[in-house]
């Protein structure tokens, strides 16, 4: 392997150290440019031999005239931006700017879409000012994106040259021995029988200890632990890959929320979501083609003791179909999402969907099936709305309260005493009038605007109210129809997430840990054995890490060199 790529560290005029000196001089020039962005060195204009100003003469004779002021400023800005100090400052600034995103509710979070409107109601004076600063959309704010882009550019300009340097160091041959080897650790002079044989024996011993070895100019050059540079390379690259992976997820992913009743099927199209938050570059018209059916939802609760009524286990049994992943079944649990070709379905909540049948005044079935009621407390007291715009002779709306385990409360009112459906009952009131469904404005299926509606009343003027158990039917007054409580189904809330950058970010995190472990765990060191004369060798070593070179390595190499002897010459018989 010769002298090519060698870089002794003790001699500034040879190998990579010479390169470092040249880089240092260039860096000095760059520092001058930093102080004088227009390229001047600060010593005033040059004077020619004739006493005239030398600027014009220099411009006329210099084949490489100094750059213009704009170019100098651009170079100065690029050096500042790609400095490691700038990258660290931007990274800290990004972390600080992300704090409001953790403390304040954020728009576009599918798991809690009502959090921001609730904050506006709770803080009517403060919320508008926070909104002007994009603090309810921190991760989509222009200032957050600007910091992220600057950090990405800074990391690219900082990491890639560093990675190139580390790669060259990894590929380089072991460097030549320093001129004064006596300054190195474990230096010693060794007397041997034959220096050349001893060098060969030392090189064999070093290779046996997995050193990289090169023999040139009467010396053995060895290096071990160069894998440390590969670890440094992986660590630096992982930082850049991690930023790209996180950015990919924020730009191309999406997050949604959907509630599915037992027996119902969800199809992964935008119109099927209760809430859908796509990333800026996500194509919601081309979502992953898949669907699943919630076959059964099971929930269990504590039945006794101080934890009575607390949840124990939830499980949503689904059957999914996908052109890519095929068909299958899966049991989704709170910490066990369904993953279909990168689209994940997390179980985030559940509740009850009373099954009601509404017949209008003409005896026709105007509505039939389960209706989702939203839980209000830990015992799953739930409220819901049933809108029946096609009922005749008048449109109907039912507002109800569902009690899984109905008991009579202390004040004579029914309440739920347990989350499971032990004694289910549904309490209803009715309204008639224009439901406003033909006006084109969107409405929530969980709320009812009663401003333009009239309450249904008994002939004596009392508001019509009814409490039904499964299988019971109640007639509406004035020939408006009837309501039947057919039974109870469950529903499950799913948070749907697709993050195309998560695999990249995971790979970067593993690479970062691996590279950091290698760079900290591997001790890089160099060892030289030099021939002084026919019977003398000089040995020295240098550690490139905080740990010293193991003394037993030096002793083993010296022992191998001194053990080398001149092979005996076979005796020849005298012909006489």
Task: Give the helices and strands, then pairings.
Elements: H1 15-35, H2 55-61, H3 69-81, H4 84-103, H5 115-122, H6 126-132, H7 142-171, E1 185-191, H8 195-208, E2 212-216, E3 219-224, H9 227-252, E4 254-261, E5 265-267, E6 275-278, E7 291-301, E8 311-322, E9 326-332, E10 338-340, E11 343-360, E12 365-370, E13 374-375, E14 382-388, E15 396-403, E16 406-408, E17 414-416, E18 425-433, E19 453-455, E20 465-468, E21 473-476, E22 481-498, H10 502-521, E23 525-533, E24 536-543, H11 551-563
Antiparallel strand pairs: 1-24, 2-3, 3-23, 4-6, 4-22, 5-7, 7-8, 8-9, 10-11, 11-12, 11-22, 13-14, 14-15, 15-18, 16-17, 18-19, 18-20, 21-22, 23-24
Helix pairs in contact: 4-7, 7-9, 8-11, 9-10
What does this structure look like?
With 576 residues, this protein is α+β, with helices and mostly antiparallel strands. It is 31% helix and 29% strand. It contains eleven helices and 24 strands. The protein has helices at residues 15-35, 55-61, 69-81, 84-103, 115-122, 126-132, 142-171, 195-208, 227-252, 502-521, 551-563, and strands at residues 185-191, 212-216, 219-224, 254-261, 265-267, 275-278, 291-301, 311-322, 326-332, 338-340, 343-360, 365-370, 374-375, 382-388, 396-403, 406-408, 414-416, 425-433, 453-455, 465-468, 473-476, 481-498, 525-533, 536-543. Strands 4, 6, 10, 11, 12, 21 and 22 form a seven-stranded antiparallel sheet that branches. Strands 13, 14, 15, 18, 19 and 20 form a six-stranded antiparallel sheet that branches. Strands 1-24-23-3-2 form a five-stranded antiparallel sheet, with helices on one face. Strand 13 (374-375) and strand 14 (382-388) form a beta hairpin. Helix 4 (84-103) crosses helix 7 (142-171), helix 8 (195-208) crosses helix 11 (551-563) and helix 9 (227-252) packs antiparallel against helix 10. The radius of gyration is 40 Å and the shape is elongated. 27% of the residues are buried.
């Amino acid at each position: 392997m010769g002298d090519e790529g060698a870089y002794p560290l003790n001699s500034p005029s040879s190998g990579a150290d010479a390169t470092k000196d040249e880089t240092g001089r260039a860096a000095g020039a760059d520092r001058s440019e930093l102080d004088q962005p227009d390229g001047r060195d600060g010593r005033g204009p040059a004077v020619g031999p004739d006493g005239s100003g030398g600027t014009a003469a220099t411009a006329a004779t210099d084949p490489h005239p100094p750059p213009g002021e704009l170019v100098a400023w651009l170079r100065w800005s690029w050096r500042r931006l790609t400095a490691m100090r700038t990258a660290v400052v931007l990274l800290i600034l990004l972390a600080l700017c992300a704090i409001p995103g953790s403390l304040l509710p954020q728009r576009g979070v599918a798991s809690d879409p009502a959090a921001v409107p609730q904050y506006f109601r709770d803080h009517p004076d403060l919320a508008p000012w926070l909104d002007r600063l994009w603090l309810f959309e921190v991760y989509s704010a222009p200032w957050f994106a600007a910091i992220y882009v600057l950090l990405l550019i800074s990391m690219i300009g900082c990491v890639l040259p560093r990675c190139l340097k580390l790669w060259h160091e990894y590929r380089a041959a072991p460097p030549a021995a320093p001129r004064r080897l006596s300054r190195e650790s474990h230096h010693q002079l060794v007397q041997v029988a034959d220096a050349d044989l001893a060098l060969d024996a030392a090189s064999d011993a070093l290779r046996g200890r997995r050193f990289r070895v090169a023999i040139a100019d009467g010396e053995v050059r060895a290096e071990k632990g160069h894998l440390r540079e590969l670890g440094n390379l992986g660590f630096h690259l992982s930082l850049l890959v991690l930023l790209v992976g996180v950015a990919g997820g924020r730009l191309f992913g999406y997050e949604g929320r959907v509630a599915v009743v037992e027996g119902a099927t969800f199809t992964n199209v935008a119109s099927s979501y209760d809430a859908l938050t796509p990333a800026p570059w996500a194509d919601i018209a081309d979502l992953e083609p898949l669907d699943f059916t919630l076959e059964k939802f099971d929930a269990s609760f504590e039945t006794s003791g101080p934890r009575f009524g607390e949840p124990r286990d939830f499980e949503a049994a689904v059957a999914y179909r996908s052109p890519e992943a095929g068909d299958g079944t899966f049991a989704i649990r709170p910490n066990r999402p369904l993953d279909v070709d990168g689209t994940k379905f997390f179980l985030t909540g559940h509740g009850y969907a009373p099954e009601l049948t509404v017949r209008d005044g003409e005896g026709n079935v105007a509505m039939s099936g389960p209706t989702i009621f939203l839980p209000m407390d830990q015992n799953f007291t739930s409220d819901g709305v049933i809108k029946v715009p096609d009922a005749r002779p008048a449109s109907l709306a039912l507002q109800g309260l569902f009690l899984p385990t109905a008991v009579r409360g202390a004040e004579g009112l029914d309440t739920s005493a347990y989350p499971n459906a032990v004694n289910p009952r549904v309490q209803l009131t009715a309204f008639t009038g224009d439901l406003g469904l033909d006006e084109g404005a969107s409405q929530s299926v969980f709320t009812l605007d009663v401003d333009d509606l009239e309450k249904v009343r008994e002939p004596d003027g009392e508001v019509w109210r009814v409490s039904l158990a499964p299988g019971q039917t109640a007639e509406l007054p004035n020939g408006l129809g009837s309501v039947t409580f057919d039974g109870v189904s469950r529903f499950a809330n799913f948070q749907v997430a697709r993050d195309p950058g998560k695999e990249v970010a995971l790979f970067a995190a593993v690479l970062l840990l691996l590279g950091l472990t290698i760079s900290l765990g591997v001790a890089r060191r160099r060892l030289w054995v030099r021939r002084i004369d026919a019977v003398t060798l000089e040995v020295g070593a240098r550690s490139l890490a905080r740990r010293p070179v193991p003394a037993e390595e030096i002793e083993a190499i010296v022992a191998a060199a001194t053990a080398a002897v001149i092979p005996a010459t076979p005796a020849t018989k005298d012909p006489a």
